[in-house]
Specification:
This protein is of the alpha/beta class and about 250 residues long. It contains eleven helices and seven strands. A seven-stranded mixed β-sheet has the order 3-4-2-5-6-1-7. A hairpin with a 5-residue loop joins β3 and β4.
Length: about 250
Amino acid sequence: MPDVLDRLERGRWRALAHRRNSLPRDPVEIMRAAGQEPDDWQAEYLRRPFIPNDRELLLCCRGAGKTRATAARSLWRMLTRPGHRTLFFAPTQRQTDEMMAYLYDFWHALGRPLAGRKRAPTEAARSLKLVNGSRALALTDNQKGVRGFHVQEIVLDEAAQISDTLFYSVRAMVLRSRGGLVVPSTPYGKRGWFFEEWADEERRWQRMSINAGQCGRYSDEQLAEERKSMGERWFKQEFECSFEDTVNA
């Protein structure tokens, strides 16, 4: 009986290795499989290797595609790093559901690699578990019930609007695992932990900033119209990645 079990186990891992080898060799192919050609900055971001104890601040204008790129890169790490566990956080459940929807879209576009025998969850599900032990789970900005997870990566989407309480509660989770902390956001005034972390260059972060002119998704006419409609302060914040004073400052 042990020999039979050993053969079954070896067969399972050979099949797993075969499916892993069938994955695209370049992570940008994840977005392309879903019919989305990555921008230059997204390709650079997707190809950035996983580094233990990494800390990343990603400051982006509105509509730059930061959530899509982050979801695609997290999926790549789940597929290529067995046992890679990721927690997604956002200010609201709708936003975390959107992150998981992107993750599922990319996974289905690749042909659902490393899927288990059980029927795959629907796109509305808030978790994805692969047979290599990797898992993604989407939660909201609620400090209750988020402690105690052992993960290799935490993503705080729209981080500028995530509470200080949640940030300081979850960042310790990746210390034991020497995991990564990924923080993409659009600015939201000179307040809160996100602004403080970005403004203090002595704090240990990898920083990347993409404004509307760099992402290439807007015409000059569109930006001029938005500047006129929104006013200078809101335009700079939403499209030029500028931390502006709050109205009551």
